Amino acid sequence: MLEALQGQEVTVNFLDGSSVSGGILEEMDERFVKYRTEYQVLYIPITSIRAVVVETKERERPRVGFGQ
Predict the structure, then answer these.
(1) pTM, whole model, 2 decimals?
(2) CA–CA distances in Å: residue 36 to residues 1, 33, 49, 59
(3) Euclidean distance between CA atoms 12 and 35, whole angstroms
(4) Which superkingdom heads the taxonomic lineage of this protein's source (predicted)?
(5) Are 43 and 55 in contact (CB under 8 A)?
(6) Residue 62 and residue 21: Cα distance in Å, rounded?
(7) SS3 for 37?
(8) Domain-by-domain residue ranges, the chain?
(9) Residues with Cβ within 8 Å of residue 23, at least 6 apart in sequence
(10) Would you tell me how many other CB atoms lie within 10 Å of the CB of residue 37?
(11) Strand, coil or helix: what is 50?
(12) Which regions of the chain are under pLDDT 50?
């Protein structure tokens, strides 16, 4: 399933509640994922990943103030 996300910019959420974002999934096998950001290369064990999120569309910011 993760092979379909190879080369895309994703956010990785971990089991402990932390996350990394702004990086690209470069390589993967049955045990590790290679995740590259601008500043570092991470080799993440598959067993520590809770979710992988792909941003497909930029969210609209809510309007501030009172509308009529």
Answers:
(1) 0.76
(2) 19, 10, 16, 24
(3) 9
(4) Bacteria
(5) no
(6) 23
(7) coil
(8) 2-54
(9) 9, 10, 12, 35, 36, 37, 38, 42
(10) 13
(11) strand
(12) none
Residue 48 in contact with residue 35, Cβ under 8 Å?
no
Q: Could you identify the residue written with the tokens 């049955």?
A: 30
Q: What tokens does 34 get?
A: 């290679």
Distances (CA, A) of 22 to 29, 53, 61: 21, 11, 20
pLDDT of residue 68: 59
Asked whether the beta carbons of 34 and 6 are under 8 A apart, the reply is no
HSE-up of 21 (CA within 13 Å, CB side)? 8
Here the tokens at position 39 are 């500043």
Measured distance CA(68)–CA(42) in Å, rounded:
49
